[in-house]
Amino acid sequence: MRTGRPIRVSFDGEIENIEDVNAAADLLQRWPVDRRGHVYRSALNACSAAIAAQISPDDALKVFTGFARVTGILVVDDDPAMVFEERSVQSRMPK
Question: What is the distance between the alpha carbons of residues 36 and 87, in angstroms, rounded to a whole number?
Fold first, then answer.
């Protein structure tokens, strides 16, 4: 259940490399109870489903990456594949 590249997160003042679904599930278990909302539950459910071989580890890690991005713990390197282009509201509007 390893990924090709670790997901880097900043949690409890330290940078952690999440290399597989088990590591993602471990971080989610340590997540503060008072901050466990819908996005948290989605990530935990996805990791649990991947561990039970109900979904692919890649799909679960995509959900976990979304969780990390939304909660602000995702560490974005200078890798062009990880840099997201900011778009204005106007560029998202249908023409």
Answer: 29
> Is pLDDT above 60 for 50?
yes
Among 11, 13, 27, 33, which residue's Cα sits nearest to residue 64? 27
How many angstroms separate the CA atoms of 55 and 73, rounded?
24
For the record, the structure tokens of 24 come out as: 């993602």
DSSP 21-44: HHHHHHHHHHS-GGG--HHHHHHH
Give the pLDDT confidence of 16-37 residue by residue, as tens digits: 999 999 999 999 999 999 999 9
CA distance 61 to 42: 11
pTM exceeding the 0.85 threshold for the entire prediction = no
Bridge partner list, 9: 16, 74
